[in-house]
Give the backbone structure.
Amino acid sequence: MSRQRDWPEDLWPIRGVMSVAQLLVDSDGAVLLDTGFPVDLGQVRRVMRRADVGPRDVRAIILTHGHIDHAGNAAALKAWTGAPVYAHPAEQPHLDGVFPYRGAARVCGRLEAIGRAITHYRPVKIDVPIANGDELPLWGGLWVVHLPGHTVGHCGFYSPRHDLLFTGDLWVRFMMRTQVSPKIFSDAPELRLASLRKARAIGARWIVPGHYDVSNATRLRRRFEELCEEIERRRRVSTV
């Protein structure tokens, strides 16, 4: 059964030291949505065992973006499962560890460099490039929703069958705070608002970010709406 309260039964969260990846299971096999920080590899395998998923059951590894806390085990899991890696092509420099961070995001670049050195991070090549509007034949159908801002190629994934939107790091619920991706972790902060509005306009019943400390789906969905309302309210005030 799912580890999340009132979410789909075939959704298995993989809670790592920094982020929450997801194992999506149905009768056709399994999909790994993000792969966690490098030290989370054992946790990924434990959740797979609990879900009765073997390495050859994994049909795809889908990445919301290329930061080390989401793609840290992509190379190892690709080698173990034989599954192809799906991601937006703009994320390849992140996966290779050569992205030219600028401005406030240089902080993110330094942290990533330290993380790669400490964990002996292995880069991975994208096998299947994805773009906005693509329908992936996985988990009953997943629509690619390009949500740039956190990174330029950052993507969410919408499941019409479950009416559920995975939003990656567009917004986070972390350490008792709900916030849009901070500038120090955003390659293109000027694009965050448009992406937030785009995600909200889908009107999904469930919204799953890449970092959260609330396991109740209803409460998490409410936090997202409150965040959107607060941001819009601030913009209205600032233009008066």
